[in-house]
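Illustration 12: Phosphoethanolamine transferase EptA.
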Amino acid sequence: VSVPCMFSNMPRAHYDEELAHHQEGVLDILQRAGIQVQWNDNDGGCKGACDRVPHQNVTDLKLSGQCIDGECYDEVLFHNLENYIDNLQQDGIIVLHTIGSHGPTYYNRYPAQFKQFTPTCDTNEIQSCTQQQLTNTYDNTILYVDYVVDKAIKLLQSKQDKFTTSLVYLSDHGESLGEDGVYLHGLPWSIAPETQKHVPMLLWLSADYQQRYGVSSQCLQQKAKTQAYSQDNLFSTLLGLLRVSTREYQATDDILTPCREAGR
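Figure caption equivalent — predicted structure in token form:
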């Protein structure tokens, strides 16, 4: 439910899954505004969020050295990506749906060189592992996620001669690692522990973006220290980032609003 909810204009507290299936999400709105949309998936599908925009399941490519038992490392999402960007003739948004730190096979989420924390839990029977083994394995997945996000930012930086670029990273859910006997994720919000609800979010803006649209990264960094944000902010933040005007846009939900120069 988290993925379609993130791209819907409905806040989490009032999200209606059935209604969302019959309602346009933010990607549909962006596409209508003339922005080229591409969804690349490495996590079993978009659950309806990308049904009406161009999308591909890169897991199905089964690239050599990138995939194990039908699951692929997230670097597979970069396959032909640079070529796609180079051929863009209009504004575009690319969604990379990563498998990230999904369990229970955490040990399959990262290549061998990212096995920095040991001993690890190299089984899907995670209850049989010690807490330290499980934590180490999860930390290795985070190390690899950091690498993937960094690689995406560097790719965008390399295209600044042609494009004004930005990046948003946001997890769809957290993960329980055995605290109080709870594992994985997916518990109802009302009873889910904080480990499943507290998720990371990262916003990167190129220097050109900041200058062109009057957004202060220093202001954003200060706001991040004191303000609480959630997946509810994604819808309007994406519209704001891409400068799309629609009545669905809520300036109060756009993370960039307080850090934009007046009139920009």
